[in-house]
Design a protein that fits this description.
It is a single chain. The longest helix has 18 residues, at 227-244. 37% of the residues lie in helices and 20% in strands. The model has no long low-confidence stretch (mean pLDDT 93). The strands form two sheets. Strands 7-6-5-10-8-11-9 form a seven-stranded parallel sheet, with helices on both faces. It is of the alpha/beta class. It has helices spanning 8-17, 35-46, 56-60, 81-90, 106-118, 136-141, 156-165, 204-209, 227-244, and strands at residues 3-6, 22-28, 51-54, 69-73, 96-100, 123-126, 150-153, 169-173, 180-181, 191-195, 212-215. It has two domains: 3-73, Ribosomal protein L30/S12 (60s Ribosomal Protein L30, Chain: A, 2-Layer Sandwich); 81-244, 3-Layer(aba) Sandwich (Alpha/beta knot), CATH 3.40.1280.
Protein backbone atom coordinates (compact mmCIF):
# COMPACT_ATOMS: atom_id res chain seq x y z
CA UNK A 1 0.00 0.00 0.00
CA UNK A 2 1.34 3.41 -0.99
CA UNK A 3 1.43 6.34 1.43
CA UNK A 4 1.96 10.08 1.42
CA UNK A 5 4.85 11.78 3.23
CA UNK A 6 4.39 15.51 3.81
CA UNK A 7 6.59 18.37 5.00
CA UNK A 8 9.71 19.71 3.32
CA UNK A 9 12.32 18.16 5.62
CA UNK A 10 10.66 14.72 5.84
CA UNK A 11 10.16 14.60 2.06
CA UNK A 12 13.74 15.67 1.46
CA UNK A 13 15.12 13.01 3.83
CA UNK A 14 13.02 10.25 2.24
CA UNK A 15 14.24 11.21 -1.22
CA UNK A 16 17.87 11.74 -0.23
CA UNK A 17 18.09 8.44 1.69
CA UNK A 18 16.41 6.65 -1.24
CA UNK A 19 15.69 3.52 0.83
CA UNK A 20 12.18 3.10 -0.50
CA UNK A 21 10.45 3.57 -3.84
CA UNK A 22 8.86 6.93 -4.55
CA UNK A 23 6.20 7.42 -7.20
CA UNK A 24 5.20 11.06 -7.53
CA UNK A 25 5.70 14.51 -6.02
CA UNK A 26 2.98 17.10 -5.51
CA UNK A 27 3.74 20.76 -4.90
CA UNK A 28 1.39 23.55 -3.90
CA UNK A 29 0.44 25.79 -6.79
CA UNK A 30 2.27 29.08 -6.41
CA UNK A 31 5.00 27.74 -4.10
CA UNK A 32 8.40 29.29 -4.75
CA UNK A 33 10.91 26.71 -5.89
CA UNK A 34 13.79 27.74 -3.64
CA UNK A 35 15.68 26.52 -0.60
CA UNK A 36 14.66 23.03 0.57
CA UNK A 37 11.90 22.81 -2.04
CA UNK A 38 14.44 23.38 -4.81
CA UNK A 39 16.56 20.52 -3.42
CA UNK A 40 13.47 18.30 -3.37
CA UNK A 41 12.71 19.14 -6.99
CA UNK A 42 16.31 18.37 -7.96
CA UNK A 43 16.02 14.94 -6.34
CA UNK A 44 12.67 14.34 -8.04
CA UNK A 45 14.32 15.11 -11.37
CA UNK A 46 17.23 12.81 -10.53
CA UNK A 47 14.85 9.93 -9.82
CA UNK A 48 12.54 10.85 -12.70
CA UNK A 49 9.50 11.36 -10.51
CA UNK A 50 6.39 13.00 -11.96
CA UNK A 51 5.88 16.45 -10.37
CA UNK A 52 2.40 17.93 -10.25
CA UNK A 53 1.23 21.30 -8.96
CA UNK A 54 -1.98 21.07 -6.95
CA UNK A 55 -4.04 23.31 -4.71
CA UNK A 56 -3.18 23.63 -1.03
CA UNK A 57 -6.65 22.27 -0.29
CA UNK A 58 -5.66 19.01 -1.99
CA UNK A 59 -2.45 18.86 0.03
CA UNK A 60 -4.43 19.46 3.23
CA UNK A 61 -6.11 16.10 2.62
CA UNK A 62 -2.75 14.32 2.50
CA UNK A 63 -1.33 15.35 5.83
CA UNK A 64 -0.92 18.09 8.41
CA UNK A 65 1.81 20.73 8.15
CA UNK A 66 2.60 19.75 4.59
CA UNK A 67 4.49 23.00 3.85
CA UNK A 68 3.33 22.82 0.28
CA UNK A 69 4.75 19.43 -0.64
CA UNK A 70 3.73 15.76 -0.56
CA UNK A 71 5.54 12.66 -1.76
CA UNK A 72 3.88 9.35 -2.63
CA UNK A 73 6.06 6.45 -1.51
CA UNK A 74 6.12 2.75 -0.76
CA UNK A 75 5.70 1.80 2.93
CA UNK A 76 8.71 1.92 5.21
CA UNK A 77 11.09 -1.03 4.73
CA UNK A 78 11.91 -2.69 8.06
CA UNK A 79 15.29 -4.27 8.70
CA UNK A 80 16.18 -7.50 10.48
CA UNK A 81 18.03 -7.62 13.82
CA UNK A 82 20.87 -9.51 12.15
CA UNK A 83 21.22 -6.76 9.54
CA UNK A 84 21.62 -4.25 12.38
CA UNK A 85 24.27 -6.38 14.09
CA UNK A 86 26.14 -7.05 10.83
CA UNK A 87 26.16 -3.37 9.87
CA UNK A 88 27.78 -2.41 13.20
CA UNK A 89 30.41 -5.15 12.84
CA UNK A 90 31.28 -4.03 9.31
CA UNK A 91 31.90 -0.55 10.70
CA UNK A 92 33.98 -2.11 13.50
CA UNK A 93 31.84 -0.32 16.09
CA UNK A 94 30.56 -1.41 19.49
CA UNK A 95 26.87 -2.29 19.23
CA UNK A 96 24.54 0.46 20.43
CA UNK A 97 20.84 -0.40 20.09
CA UNK A 98 17.50 1.03 21.23
CA UNK A 99 14.62 -1.29 22.13
CA UNK A 100 11.10 0.12 22.45
CA UNK A 101 8.56 -1.82 24.49
CA UNK A 102 5.15 -0.87 23.07
CA UNK A 103 5.64 2.85 22.44
CA UNK A 104 2.25 3.84 21.05
CA UNK A 105 2.34 7.60 20.54
CA UNK A 106 3.66 8.55 17.06
CA UNK A 107 5.19 11.77 18.38
CA UNK A 108 7.09 9.89 21.09
CA UNK A 109 8.28 7.29 18.60
CA UNK A 110 9.38 10.00 16.18
CA UNK A 111 11.33 11.78 18.90
CA UNK A 112 13.10 8.61 20.00
CA UNK A 113 13.95 7.66 16.41
CA UNK A 114 15.39 11.11 15.77
CA UNK A 115 17.49 10.99 18.94
CA UNK A 116 18.77 7.50 18.14
CA UNK A 117 19.71 8.53 14.60
CA UNK A 118 21.34 11.75 15.84
CA UNK A 119 23.86 9.90 18.04
CA UNK A 120 24.56 7.15 15.51
CA UNK A 121 22.80 4.22 17.19
CA UNK A 122 22.99 1.16 14.99
CA UNK A 123 19.33 0.31 15.08
CA UNK A 124 15.97 0.23 16.81
CA UNK A 125 13.94 -2.87 17.69
CA UNK A 126 10.27 -2.79 18.56
CA UNK A 127 7.33 -5.21 18.64
CA UNK A 128 5.02 -5.49 15.69
CA UNK A 129 1.78 -5.70 17.70
CA UNK A 130 0.26 -3.13 20.06
CA UNK A 131 2.89 -0.52 19.21
CA UNK A 132 3.24 2.36 16.79
CA UNK A 133 4.93 1.50 13.51
CA UNK A 134 6.78 3.73 11.07
CA UNK A 135 3.78 5.53 9.63
CA UNK A 136 3.81 8.86 7.75
CA UNK A 137 2.99 10.55 11.08
CA UNK A 138 6.11 9.04 12.64
CA UNK A 139 8.24 10.00 9.63
CA UNK A 140 6.96 13.56 10.04
CA UNK A 141 7.53 13.57 13.82
CA UNK A 142 11.09 12.33 13.33
CA UNK A 143 11.64 14.96 10.58
CA UNK A 144 12.66 12.13 8.28
CA UNK A 145 15.18 10.51 10.65
CA UNK A 146 13.37 7.18 10.13
CA UNK A 147 15.14 6.97 6.77
CA UNK A 148 18.61 7.09 8.33
CA UNK A 149 18.47 4.31 10.91
CA UNK A 150 17.62 0.62 10.70
CA UNK A 151 14.39 -0.36 12.47
CA UNK A 152 13.34 -3.96 13.06
CA UNK A 153 10.06 -5.41 14.34
CA UNK A 154 10.20 -8.58 16.45
CA UNK A 155 9.51 -10.08 19.86
CA UNK A 156 11.59 -8.10 22.36
CA UNK A 157 12.41 -11.04 24.63
CA UNK A 158 13.79 -12.94 21.66
CA UNK A 159 15.68 -9.84 20.53
CA UNK A 160 17.28 -9.45 23.97
CA UNK A 161 18.36 -13.12 23.90
CA UNK A 162 20.12 -12.50 20.59
CA UNK A 163 21.72 -9.30 21.87
CA UNK A 164 22.91 -11.08 25.01
CA UNK A 165 24.65 -13.61 22.77
CA UNK A 166 26.39 -10.63 21.13
CA UNK A 167 27.64 -9.46 24.52
CA UNK A 168 25.29 -6.51 25.04
CA UNK A 169 24.42 -5.16 28.47
CA UNK A 170 20.67 -4.47 28.48
CA UNK A 171 19.47 -1.53 30.55
CA UNK A 172 15.73 -1.16 31.06
CA UNK A 173 14.40 2.26 31.94
CA UNK A 174 12.16 1.69 34.94
CA UNK A 175 11.30 4.06 37.76
CA UNK A 176 9.51 1.51 39.92
CA UNK A 177 10.53 -1.12 42.42
CA UNK A 178 13.81 -2.87 41.69
CA UNK A 179 15.34 0.04 39.81
CA UNK A 180 18.35 2.10 40.86
CA UNK A 181 19.79 5.45 39.69
CA UNK A 182 21.47 5.10 36.31
CA UNK A 183 25.23 4.51 36.43
CA UNK A 184 26.77 6.29 33.41
CA UNK A 185 30.01 4.31 33.82
CA UNK A 186 28.10 1.17 32.81
CA UNK A 187 26.84 2.66 29.55
CA UNK A 188 30.03 2.69 27.53
CA UNK A 189 30.29 -0.87 26.18
CA UNK A 190 28.02 -2.94 23.92
CA UNK A 191 24.63 -1.63 25.02
CA UNK A 192 20.92 -1.98 24.55
CA UNK A 193 18.62 0.65 26.09
CA UNK A 194 15.00 -0.39 26.62
CA UNK A 195 12.26 2.25 26.87
CA UNK A 196 8.81 1.15 28.01
CA UNK A 197 5.24 2.10 27.24
CA UNK A 198 4.13 5.66 27.97
CA UNK A 199 1.73 4.61 30.71
CA UNK A 200 2.63 1.13 31.91
CA UNK A 201 6.40 1.11 31.45
CA UNK A 202 8.16 -2.17 30.71
CA UNK A 203 6.20 -5.39 30.41
CA UNK A 204 7.05 -8.08 32.94
CA UNK A 205 8.86 -10.37 30.48
CA UNK A 206 10.89 -7.49 29.13
CA UNK A 207 11.76 -6.32 32.64
CA UNK A 208 13.01 -9.78 33.61
CA UNK A 209 15.15 -10.01 30.49
CA UNK A 210 17.06 -6.80 31.30
CA UNK A 211 20.42 -6.95 33.05
CA UNK A 212 19.71 -3.76 34.94
CA UNK A 213 16.72 -1.54 35.68
CA UNK A 214 17.76 2.08 35.83
CA UNK A 215 15.95 5.32 36.61
CA UNK A 216 16.97 8.91 35.96
CA UNK A 217 17.50 10.79 39.22
CA UNK A 218 15.01 13.63 39.71
CA UNK A 219 15.97 16.66 41.81
CA UNK A 220 13.11 19.06 41.07
CA UNK A 221 9.40 19.05 41.75
CA UNK A 222 8.62 17.13 38.56
CA UNK A 223 8.21 13.46 39.49
CA UNK A 224 8.89 11.92 36.10
CA UNK A 225 9.61 12.54 32.42
CA UNK A 226 7.62 11.14 29.53
CA UNK A 227 8.97 8.14 27.61
CA UNK A 228 10.45 10.13 24.74
CA UNK A 229 12.23 12.64 26.96
CA UNK A 230 13.55 10.08 29.45
CA UNK A 231 14.68 7.77 26.65
CA UNK A 232 16.44 10.62 24.86
CA UNK A 233 18.28 11.64 28.04
CA UNK A 234 19.43 8.05 28.60
CA UNK A 235 20.59 7.75 24.99
CA UNK A 236 22.68 10.88 25.34
CA UNK A 237 24.18 9.74 28.63
CA UNK A 238 25.33 6.58 26.87
CA UNK A 239 26.53 8.53 23.84
CA UNK A 240 28.65 10.84 26.00
CA UNK A 241 30.17 7.82 27.77
CA UNK A 242 30.99 6.24 24.40
CA UNK A 243 32.75 9.45 23.32
CA UNK A 244 34.97 9.23 26.40
CA UNK A 245 36.08 5.78 25.31
CA UNK A 246 37.08 6.68 21.76
Amino acid sequence: MKEWITGRNPVYEVLSAHHRDSFQLRIADGAKIEGQLAKICDLAKKYRLPVTKVSRKQLDQMGEKHQGVALETAPYHYSDIHEIITAAKKRDETLFILLLDMIQNPQNLGTLVRTAAAVGMHGIIMPQAKAAGVTPAVVHASVGATEHIRIAQMNLSQAIDILHDEGLWIVGMEGGEGSSPVQPKRLGGPLGIVVGNEGEGLRQLTRKACDELAALPMAGKVESLNAATAGSVMIYLAYMKRLEML
